[in-house]
Amino acid sequence: MTSDEEWTPMDRTTAESLLRGDRTGLPLDRVLAAAKAPATARELAGEAAAVAAFRAATASSAGRTRRFPVVWSALSKLLTVKVAAAAFATTATVGGVALAANNGTLPGPVSAPAASVSPSAAPEPKPSPSTSPTPSASPTPSAPARPRSSGSPGAGPDRVADLCREFTRHDRENRRRALDDERFRELVRRAGEKDRARVEGFCGIRPSGSVNTRPSGSVSTRPSGSVSTRPTWDGDRRPPNRPRTHGGMGPRRE
Amino acid sequence: MVASEDLDAVVSAAQAGDEEAFRRLYRAQQPALVRYLRVLVSDDAEDVASESWLQIARDLRKFSGDWDGFRGWTATIARHRAMDLLRAQRRRPQVGVPVEFLAEMSAGDDTADRALELVTTEDAVALIASLPPEMAEAVMLRVVVGLDATSTGRILGRRAGAVRTAAYRGLRQLAAKLAQRDPRHPPEPPRSPSWKPAVTTSAAAALKEMR
């Protein structure tokens, strides 16, 4: 194509070709090709959180019939330290969510993260007392209704995992006090009640006094060989996610 | 790129609870969503995409359709979440630039320059995002999300014809931006009746549809 033709105003046929992704010889080819180039790692950074939500949704809907072989084969591939650590963080979060959902205590199971971060249009009359004020509570345009734009992590699974981690670091007495702390309000909301045991349960902490090998602060200090450490979850009350009873493909421990 | 028949099966598998299938859907669709969201909410695109995926994960079982349908469905969710954010922040879409912005493109605006030289994904999306919103959305949904005019129209609440026109005009403006920035080529000449008949006809039809 000569440059004269190239800069003739494009006709509809050319436009349709561009939209379909055909090469037209126009410089626009390169721009459009770049716009739909394969994913970058950064773009996929939210995969763990998305999968965590999927897992929780699946666990809460499928209940005890859930099979988990896929998780095991995936985990066995994830043995680099970093990935395993990330995977664990994910698991920890979902564990909490799944448990709470199973107990029927989670206000709006799994949907909670979405609902809490966005003043959604869904028919949800109760104002969400989460990290963000509801839109009606902040009529001033100068104060963004949500902290997101200022770089706040929001209240997604990762945020909840962080809160759990922090909560777990407190000892029993301090945990009770921590519940009054504004910082943990989101956690309390997720757990459904301002109750130490309830929040502990939500975060996957064993009731104190029971025999449990899990170290406190486990979420952050846990070693990272994911497959070998993962079975600790079996000691927890996580009925919907017990893989060994159904899956049959993972390393059996019982 | 994975064939769409394959992904039809992946959608079904994910709906049946297959986590690996869900991962594949995420990897296949997330880039398109986050790039589309970039033209709507700019820097908040990643956050809004994350929220969208929470909802997608939650509602996937209720969804019925194939891979094409999934793409449209997820784009709809992403758009709703973006609109929620914009409402909450009481701002217009980031790309709310007046139509006459082309004339005002200052020398300091090097988006088109960079797009020509590097053509990174980021630059390309930024360039598209500099279009007026309805054009930017139409171009992104059609080119990047890969939807047809009808599906795009459903998402945008417009007729397929209007979507075609918006996408077409968007592409024209993009081409003009590039021409303007590329010294090797003269800027697009003004419309004149001396075009080849075929071009004239379709351009006239386009004009008509634009009104």
From TrEMBL, chain A:
Compositional bias annotation for Basic and acidic residues: 159-199
Highest taxon, organism lineage: Bacteria
Compositionally skewed regions (Low complexity) per UniProt: 110-121, 145-157
Composition-biased stretches (Polar residues): 209-231
Residue spans of biased composition, Pro residues class: 122-144
Span list, region Disordered: 1-20, 110-254
Protein name: Uncharacterized protein
Organism expressing this protein natively: Actinoplanes campanulatus
Automatic annotation (TrEMBL), chain B:
Organism taxonomic ancestry: Bacteria, Bacillati, Actinomycetota, Actinomycetes, Micromonosporales
Lipid metabolism recorded as keyword: no
NCBIfam families named among the record's database cross-references: sigma70-ECF (TIGR02937)
Residue ranges, annotated region (Disordered): 178-211
Protein's name according to its UniProt entry: RNA polymerase sigma-70 factor (ECF subfamily)
TM regions (residue ranges): none
Biased composition (Basic and acidic residues): 179-188
SUPFAM superfamilies xref list: Sigma2 domain of RNA polymerase sigma factors, Sigma3 and sigma4 domains of RNA polymerase sigma factors
Keywords in alphabetical order: Sigma factor, Transcription, Transcription regulation
Domain RNA polymerase sigma factor 70 region 4 type residue range list: 125-174
Keyword Nucleus set for record: no
Family that this chain belongs to: Belongs to the sigma-70 factor family. ECF subfamily.
Single GO biological process annotation from the record: DNA-templated transcription initiation
Limits of the RNA polymerase sigma-70 region domain: 25-92
GO MF term list: DNA binding; sigma factor activity
